[in-house]
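Expect chain and fold; thus:
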Amino acid sequence: MRFAVCVFPGSNCDYDTYYVIRDLLGQEVSFVDYTTRDLKGFDCVVIPGGFSFGDYLRAGVLASKTSLGKAIVDFAQKGGLVLGICNGFQILTELELLPGALLRNENMRFICKDAYLRVENKELAFTKRFEEGEIIRMPIAHGEGRYYLPEEELKLIEERGQVVLRYCDEEGNITSQANPNGSVNNIAGVCNKEGNVFGLMPHPERACEDLLGYRDGIILWHSLLA
């Protein structure tokens, strides 16, 4: 596969993502900056975490107005695989490629910790190597990660299976205590109706080696290759 890793002013997980794709997966990968107008020739576009344009106005909104933002929309609408991690998830909602919005954390503080997640949809290119209901662990690091969607729209995405990951406890229970940021229905990641665009707040690129303490993240990347 040929991967593109998007780089905006303020991105800070781009090299982590590049390393995983090149060194751990052995795949072809290129950086594409915010002036890029065409993503032709790539199989998967990854929007990494960070603070694009300093999160001015709100997280992800300025990145969504760039040439690269428009190219991502075009790529996704043509069926290309798009993965948005943390700030990348925020950008995808601003591009309206994913439903909902990411609001300030309920406690109004930046959160950096491990989170347990339950896999709710394993039918995507991003999750096919997971088991339905599998409990995994990845780190989170965000100040605006509280997923929100109005009730009627929330009901629709739940019915369509667009909720991909939920925050849970170590046993897989979906509780308010296991919800780190106040996200509605404990949602940690969603996909679009077509299933080719996926956004999540946890960081799979930081959970790929024993040296880091866990390897659940690498399963997502191997799912893409599969």
